[in-house]
Amino acid sequence: MNKQEARAFSGVSERTLQNLMAQRKIGFRRETGRSGQTVAFDRAELERFKADREKTVQQPAVQRMEKEEMQTGRVQNCRPLQPYRM
Description:
Elements: H1 3-10, H2 14-22, E1 29-33, E2 36-40, H3 43-56, H4 61-72
Antiparallel strand pairs: 1-2
């Protein structure tokens, strides 16, 4: 699988894919052909990466707070409103 196919499959941008390659978080191999050097990715490795990424995606903090507030029935870390003074 080439870079374009890997980006489309994993759902990341080109820059993110390059960063992941540089950090060795995604395995790849360099292949030399008639048109020069290319990069190839293993589909099974990308599937593992995609599954791990979906597990670690967190909800935004605001949504987590709203969910906690609905469960507990109270708003945390809020001060009572003060009248506006001129």
